[in-house]
């Protein structure tokens, strides 16, 4: 052994240094922060264009968050505007917006000095300073409108106390300190003014397509209405395309929000009505009003959808969404969800959506396809489940029949469940192997359903499978939740936006009803229970009478993963492929 | 906001520094290593007492590993003696001794220079330098007997490529480089001389009790036999206590290994025979010989057990294991497992176990209790499972009936399964909540069954529950593996050593046979299969005829976790508590 050297690679994601080294580096970091702070306090303002995304955090708009995302650096830079700073604030992230087990950046003042730190809250909501400081303060600046705080956070840290920033919904939480506090631990998180805001933090990094010269705009907006003084309102307003409006392509749309109402307009959708009716009433009022004409229920074809925090939506350069022309209704329905928890009175609003469209049709019509589960009670979730999984299949046989040989390109996706939905994911599978995630939201909320551009366009070919999995929480329910259209029934849907348009509108599945019948039989015999299986009793009724012990729950899961499925591979919502 | 400071705790388990900082620290580490190496090469030899544990790695004894464990530092220091160094060696750890997905320290030479590094092998066995160097070289020293390498490793690193050193069995692997290699990546791991050795790396840190002055020793050793020239031999030798040998307490025992045979003697046990027979034949030969008298099967009460790498076994100061006296057989059976893969011929051996005993009886007799599953075919594992779990319960009702109010103290444990066993764990549960792990082995091997001292004595009170869970792998089997005594049947047992001795010898469970009958019925009806359930067909036969689809597998798991259990709470192997 003539000489010895130690050898290794230079990349290192998570080194385990000794405590002493860490402590000294930590104090260096503090020193660096202080230097940066001084620079920032004297330096120039951050540019608005540095932070392309913006959302108000609270209903009054006292806190306004702007941010940008760097995929090469795998981090997010936040700029938080605090309009009326008192004794500090909490900002952070948690699984579903709760203040327990949350990952928080805290700015607090004891009346003399102010402090900033990365903290976490335990299962009881008690705050603790984090052993690893991952919210890195980069600067602070006083301006006429308030205090700007600038800080960064890596998507993923090596700290088990930290939130992992992923694609999909992120539940941001905030709290306002209205009294001085002498330490982080002294903050009583349950006694402060606080709230939550859902955003898609990791926006896709998309190049904006070239827009044609002949592009026109059309605003579908509420006609200066008064926002009702109640927490939740769904407002319906009927608009109409001009007579003999020929076929156009929508190539982009963006929100139009009345100034001052940014924190109240939660989400908006423009639907096209069914072509089978010649006319629709000109309604303008709450969607749940007794006065709302029934016929408005036939306006369900989504043309545009926007939710808080979302930006303009661009179609890919090759495609546009057709509207106008023969076989297409002239009637549009605008639906606005106003979220008014502070019950402001007399606020007037003319928000809506601005459509950008062109008469120079693009190469392809865009289409929307529905993936997931058929709306049927045979797919059910037992009560008291914290994470029950149901899966819907768009099978290889269906894509073989219905897709063109050159395939289709999915460029956007809107996930949809009812109130028990907690996660939704669609994966593309080829030859039985998972190839790619089409869209995933591990913190999905039924209250935040955006159409999201995909980071990458997904090509789907004949023979591919699209598997959509939904996770539900029914801990607050006492009886089974069956599939269906009702708000207390469930859905598992991914509306994928793709081109070129095909005849395939719906590619979904459900368990074979014969096997479900065997399940009810088994429950009956195994548990010595009387579950009525007379033909006149509905599947829902049978589910409601199952005694939900662990065995019956487990066997239902096993059934769903084992039993054959019945596939709906439909040209329209009625006509099936042969 | 008068001034700002950054605040945080000083403890930091796993910081995420920027690449630049890491790289510079890494090169510092190399420099430190080189300095240490020079010091070590010139300095004094490590003391043998610094490394209390020692095991040969290979059957020839060319590699000898010594180590110590520091619980305050949470690390292990290794001293590896390489008697005949050629061009380097690999040493490391993996889940079950495989060379794929292994964590390795590699010393290699290109003929001119030698290198040391922390590496890992991927699923194909290809070596890669680890991005984080966690095997830290502390020194190297040439001595007449060979080269000593000294290095340390933390139990847990922050590197997902690293093996986590836990309690229980660790599969050590080694490989010898017989040719120069030009890089780590060039090592073809499948072409080198290599092997595995199982050890309990994290020995408990036990204070040795005071030993009495009147302590005597007795050696139960093989009578200078010739080790058979075959890979595996279980040797049986009958020994006898003196006539009228009164009751004594065994308070300690240790191995006696014939010099030169350290790598061949794999494990040894001393059993006491059943008192119901007045005499036993004086057999001395292989345990599987046709000549072995049947009566030796009645010698099954364990007095002492040792396996490679284990040290002396000490009873706690309050207790000793009774032997001798009325009601106790004079006959002992020594069983030695010789592992002779290189098929050495003519090796003579007189290894065995030295018992240390005293006539001054200690306060308590020690007892052995059997926890886990009853030996019955109703507990079965489907074929083709990679990790199937079976659980046996020593219930609150049984401990309530059988244990003294002051409780018992478990101080040692021997885990036992047959060939499909992969993990075994026993936990203590009180009022339905897990209190404490009694003994756990996440890398359990049926080929390495030691009696292990517990790190902490576990107190068990009336009303406590002891839950033993075994994990099995049946990927190489084509039919169900049922519970039973046969080598291809399975067991799930934890022999716990405790004091004071009680009448409770066995506290185990199995699924209620009536529910298993319902399971066979269900399989029959659900799958339209004909599984014969005639009374004359055994449970094993019924298991063998189950079609093992995912549904039948899942439902069997659900059954085992849901169905009522039948509990055996026995005074001896036959008499149940009322």
From TrEMBL, chains A, B:
Domain DOMON: residue ranges: 61-177
Superkingdom of the source species: Eukaryota
One Gene Ontology biological process: octopamine biosynthetic process
Catalytic reaction list: dopamine + 2 L-ascorbate + O2 = (R)-noradrenaline + 2 monodehydro-L-ascorbate radical + H2O
GO CC annotations, alphabetized: chromaffin granule lumen; chromaffin granule membrane; extracellular space
Broad enzyme group: oxidoreductase
Cofactor(s) listed in the protein's UniProt record: Cu(2+)
EC number(s) per entry: 1.14.17.1
Subcellular location: Cytoplasmic vesicle, Secretory vesicle, Chromaffin granule lumen; Cytoplasmic vesicle, Secretory vesicle, Chromaffin granule membrane
Protein function: Catalyzes the hydroxylation of dopamine to noradrenaline (also known as norepinephrine), and is thus vital for regulation of these neurotransmitters.
Protein family according to the UniProt entry: Belongs to the copper type II ascorbate-dependent monooxygenase family.
Protein name: Dopamine beta-hydroxylase
Organism of derivation: Glaucidium brasilianum
């Amino acid at each position: 052994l003539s000489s010895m050297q130690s050898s290794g690679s230079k990349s290192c994601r998570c080194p385990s240094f000794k405590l002493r080294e860490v402590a000294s580096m930590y104090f260096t970091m503090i020193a660096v922060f202080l230097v940066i702070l001084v620079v920032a306090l004297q330096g120039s303002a951050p540019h608005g264009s540095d932070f392309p995304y913006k959302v108000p955090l609270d209903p009054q708009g006292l806190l306004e968050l702007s941010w940008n995302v760097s995929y090469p650096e795998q981090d997010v830079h936040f700029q938080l505007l605090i309009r009326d700073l008192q004794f500090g604030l909490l900002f952070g992230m948690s699984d579903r917006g709760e203040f327990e087990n949350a990952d928080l950046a805290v700015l607090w003042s004891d009346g003399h000095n102010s402090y900033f730190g990365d903290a976490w809250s335990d299962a009881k909501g008690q705050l603790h300073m984090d052993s690893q400081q991952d919210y890195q303060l980069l600067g602070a600046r006083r301006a006429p409108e308030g205090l700007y705080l600038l800080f960064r956070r890596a998507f993923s840290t090596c700290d088990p106390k930290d939130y992992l920033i992923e694609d999909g919904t992120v539940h941001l939480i905030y709290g306002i300190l209205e009294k001085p506090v002498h330490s982080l631990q002294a903050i009583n998180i349950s006694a402060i003014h606080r709230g939550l805001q859902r955003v898609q933090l990791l926006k896709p990094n998309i190049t904006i397509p070239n827009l044609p010269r002949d592009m026109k705009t059309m605003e579908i907006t509420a006609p200066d209405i008064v926002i009702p003084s109640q927490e939740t309102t769904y407002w319906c307003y009927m608009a109409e395309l001009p007579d003999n409006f020929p076929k156009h392509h929508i190539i982009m749309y963006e929100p139009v929000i009345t100034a001052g109402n940014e924190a109240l307009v939660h989400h908006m959708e423009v639907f096209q009505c069914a072509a089978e009716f010649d006319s629709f009433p000109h309604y303008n009022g709450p969607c749940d009003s007794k006065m709302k004409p029934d016929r408005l229920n036939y306006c369900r074809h989504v043309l545009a959808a926007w939710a808080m925090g979302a930006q303009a939506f661009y179609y890919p350069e090759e495609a546009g969404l057709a509207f106008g022309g023969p076989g297409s209704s002239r009637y549009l329905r605008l639906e606005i969800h106003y979220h008014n928890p502070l019950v402001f009175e007399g606020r007037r609003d003319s928000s809506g959506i601005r459509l950008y469209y062109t008469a120079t049709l693009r190469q392809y019509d865009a289409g929307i396809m529905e993936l997931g589960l058929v709306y049927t009670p045979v797919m059910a979730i037992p009560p008291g489940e914290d994470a029950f999984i149901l899966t819907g299949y768009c099978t290889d046989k269906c894509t073989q029949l219905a897709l063109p040989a050159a395939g289709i390109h999915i460029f956007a996706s809107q996930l949809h469940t009812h109130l028990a939905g907690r996660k939704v994911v669609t994966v593309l599978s080829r030859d039985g192997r998972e190839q790619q995630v089409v869209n995933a939201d591990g913190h999905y909320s039924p209250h935040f359903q955006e159409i999201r551009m995909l980071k990458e366009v997904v090509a789907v070919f004949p023979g591919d499978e699209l598997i959509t999995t939904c996770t539900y929480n029914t801990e607050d329910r006492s009886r089974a939740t069956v599939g269906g259209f009702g708000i207390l029934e469930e859905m598992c849907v991914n509306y994928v936006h793709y081109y070129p348009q095909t005849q395939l509108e719906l590619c979904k599945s459900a368990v074979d009803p014969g096997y479900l019948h065997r399940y009810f039989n088994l429950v009956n015999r195994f548990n010595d229970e009387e579950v009525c299986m007379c033909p006149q009793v509905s599947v829902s009724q049978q589910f409601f009478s199952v005694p939900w012990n662990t065995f019956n729950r487990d066997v239902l899961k096993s059934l769903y993963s084992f039993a054959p499925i019945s596939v709906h591979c439909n040209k329209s919502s009625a006509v099936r492929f042969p």
